[in-house]
Design a protein that fits this description.
single chain; alpha+beta; outer membrane lipoprotein receptor (LolB), chain A; 13-stranded antiparallel beta sheet; two-stranded parallel sheet; 5 helices; globular
């Protein structure tokens, strides 16, 4: 995945330093041309709901985990993804996460695990936290999901939504031997900010770049972080269930590793590349979302099929209770 991932978009957006800041750039015109290339305002406005199924290849330590990927959205404020987090001998561990307005959607599907492995979902509520801490953690997850939705919406529709309103300003031109791309600065509520790169020839979105803290990864065996970020090794050898004392020690070790990893996290560049645009019911939709973290391949989502304006079971968007 790595070599294909890093070369699939072309050098026009590979070198962040190759930027010529032009005077008088028109962000509104760049965005209008982009939306026209995606199908035009009328056809894009007619898209009220969208589902997608495909595959997700994700770097975890020294391994690449491949699994199914699903996305469902109803504009403007319902969004979720379901993807494989890990493959175990007993089956796949899958996470569904998203938002419905101000409500968090979160559900984990996991097989019954023998032995002593401990699994945690980072970023959510903790049984040992106070109600106030859990409420704050849930609010952070909702914000993260709205930011993720906005990054995908820019590649899908060439616009943000009321879930996280954004402003666009012209940022210059990125140039390489392969061509040029207009740079649009994107700013939203809170700390949401980044740069959208738009191909000057096709007028299609190429990439969205932003700065954030590197992620913390937890893997079951020793290995380097192939997808960027701090890595923690955690687990227990053998198939016997842990004793209460062993479980307490495992949890303490995990908490110590989490604190150490958090203290060492650096602010790095994230990139999501939009690619393989194809016509779907009158609009052009990307069939590839490739992400890198600090220059290292992180994940690649390959969409196999979209459905425009399908009927989606409302239960899918029910917030967690």
């Amino acid at each position: 995945m790595g070599s294909k991932f890093l070369t699939g978009v072309g050098a026009v957006v590979m070198a962040a330093g190759a930027v010529l800041f032009a005077q008088g750039g028109d962000a509104a015109k760049v965005m209008a041309d982009m939306r026209q290339a995606l199908g035009g305002d009328k056809k894009l406005a007619a898209v009220k709901a969208l589902t997608a199924v495909g595959k997700n290849d994700r770097v975890s330590g020294e391994r690449t985990i491949s699994g199914d990927f699903e996305m469902a959205l109803e504009l403007p404020e319902k969004f979720l993804t379901k993807q494989t987090l890990a493959q175990t001998p007993m089956g796949a561990v899958a996470l569904t996460v998203g938002f419905n307005g101000a409500g968090l959607i979160q559900d984990t599907e996991a097989p019954q695990m023998p032995g002593g492995g401990v699994r945690m979902v980072f970023g959510g509520a903790s049984p040992n936290a106070t109600p106030e801490e859990n409420k704050a953690a849930e609010a952070r997850m909702i914000t993260q999901q709205k930011q993720e939705f906005t990054r995908m919406a820019l590649g899908l529709f060439g616009a943000g939504t009321s879930a996280l309103p954004v402003e666009f300003t012209y940022g210059g031109v990125a140039e390489s031997p392969d061509g040029k791309a207009d740079i649009i600065n994107v700013k939203g509520d809170g700390d949401f900010a980044g740069k959208l790169f738009v191909d000057q020839k096709s007028h299609l979105p190429l990439m969205f770049s932003w700065m954030a803290k590197e992620p913390v990864q937890m893997v079951q065996s020793a290995g380097r972080s192939g997808g960027g970020g701090q890595v923690m090794q955690f687990g227990r050898q053998g198939g016997a269930a842990p004793t209460p004392e062993e479980r307490d020690k495992m949890m303490k070790d995990l908490q110590d590793q989490m604190k150490a990893a958090e203290a060492n996290r650096k602010t790095v560049e994230f990139r999501v590349y939009y690619g393989n645009y194809q016509d779907v019911d009158g609009v052009k939709l990307p069939h590839s979302f490739q992400q890198s973290i600090a220059g290292a391949a992180s994940s690649e989502i390959t969409i196999e099929k979209y459905k425009v304006n399908p009927k989606i079971d409302p239960k899918r968007f029910e917030p967690k209770k």
